[in-house]
Amino acid sequence: MVRVKRGNLALKRKKKYFKFCKGYRGSNSRLSTMAMEQTVQSLQYAYIGRKLKKRSFRKYWIYRINSSLSALNLKYSIVLGNLKKLKIFLNKKILAHLSYNDPSAFEILVKKSKN
């Protein structure tokens, strides 16, 4: 039988995966099937990581706010509930930033929530 070479399209597809797999170790960067599998897996990990990053930052902000409030002998849930009742809509990121970088402004907010 006559040998048939693969077309340019297959080579292009492989090149795309190999470009993505630069820096991978062992056969993951050299063999086409392994490279494709590893690429798909790495993209899945990246997707999951983006979701986890949001969770971990939110947790980090809550820790910061809570530690600042515990220094003032207050509870996190009560203060945030009171801020919402007063219609002071600041998200956790901003509150954490205030508690760390501008404690005086944070204390003013907390005092407003007490009254």
Q: What is the CATH class?
A: Mainly Alpha
Number of helices: 5
Taking all Cα atoms into account, the compactness measure Rg is: 26 Å
Number of domains: 1
User: Percent helix among the residues?
Assistant: over 70%
For CATH, the homologous superfamily is named as: Ribosomal protein L20, C-terminal domain
Q: How far is the N terminus from the C terminus?
A: 90 Å
Major pleated sheet: none
What is the third-level CATH name, the topology? c-terminal domain of poly(a) binding protein
Q: What class do helices, strands and sheet pairing give? A: mainly alpha
Q: Note the beta-strand portion.
A: under 5%
Large-scale geometry: rod-shaped
Order of helices and strands: HHHHH
Based on the structure given, which CATH architecture is correct? Orthogonal Bundle
